[in-house]
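Section 3.1: Structural characterization of target chains.
Under the original work plan, the team committed to producing a structural model for every single-chain target entering the pipeline before any wet-lab resources were allocated. The record below documents one such target. The sequence was received from the expression subgroup and is listed exactly as submitted; it comprises 415 residues.
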Amino acid sequence: MVDLSRRRLLQAGALAGSAMLLPGMMQAVWAAGSDKPEQQSVRVGFIPLTDCAPVAIATLKGFDKKYGITIVPTKEASWAAVRDKLVAGELDAAHILYGMLYGLELGIAGKPQQMANLMTLNHNGQAITLASELAERGVRNLEGLKKYVGQQAPGSLTFAHTFPTGTHAMWLYYWLASGGIDPFEDVRTVVVPPPQMVMNMRIGNMVGFCVGEPWNARAINDRIGFTAATSQSIWPEHPEKILGTRRAWVEQNPHTARALVCALLEASRWIEASEENRRETARILARRAWLNTKEQYLTGRMLGEYDNGIGKRWRDPHPIRFFSDGAVSYPYLSDGMWFLTQFRRWGMLKSAPDYAAIAQRINQTAIWQDAALAVGGMSAPSPPLRSSTLMDGTVWNGTDPEGYASRFAIHRKGA
């Protein structure tokens, strides 16, 4: 099974490499027919988080118009709302949690749906916040939390994430388990929409949460919590939000899909072109139409400047990234497969999936390739895998995914 997965991945990489060797042919194909977008108006859902930035910038800077479409951004209240509207066709595409899209494909995040990942929108930029009351009791890191949890009745402490198969759930589970805390036996976890995290911690509904910015910075500003870990300290340069849609929509609107990716690639490149562009992005996102918050909650971490709220300040070597010469946006197959390994680890999948096949049908590497050629200055990796070392020293490189999924000491019973 492992050898078959590896072979499929290498074949996919070879195809991507071949496309890069024939840019003239690709452009000639477009010229021979019509590459005009099938839809001129594209409804894109988003949750008010810092990492929706490419959607905002593509819309407000006119990158969508450059490629013949008009993005209609739609602000949503929860990830469940994004899921429901995307599946129902009320949204054409969305800023969405990586693991949520894969969960939809597999029927563990809702009714099974054929989904598509057009590109990765960002790396890094999430965090785990613990309540200030824990700091007052001497809990300032994972080791201290392990000791404190051991003093409580199992399940008496509540932690929140944003969606059961989402990225924040996976970061929270991984972090807790790396410290010897079973996220299903030792503590209780609940789902809370991102904009409601701070309020729920303020009234004592949980002692910790994992969410995207600016809500971790907001908890520090409101003096109700501190940053115990950044998501990039769990997995440096981890994939986070993606541009998700239905596979049927891509099949019916291939030119529109490519134009949408082009617009967001241009926006991502613009954000990272200078520090001033990042600052302007923070000012834009603070507006009512987007995050409706104070600019000060956004700017610091947008620039990679961190303060954990209990005396530590640093410039993070892995700040939130949107472009990095296109490397952020490429939909690596190994990134999607990692979420499958965690679904297996935590008992969400009862049998081993075909990791490679699932990633290949969801991650639209060919559309990314076409868009990258149109925008320019980017090339696809071959094969579509990358290697990463996580906080506990485990190395993930997309090979032997089932072996990787079963290697963890703490896992869900029956997984």
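The chain has 20 helices and 14 strands.
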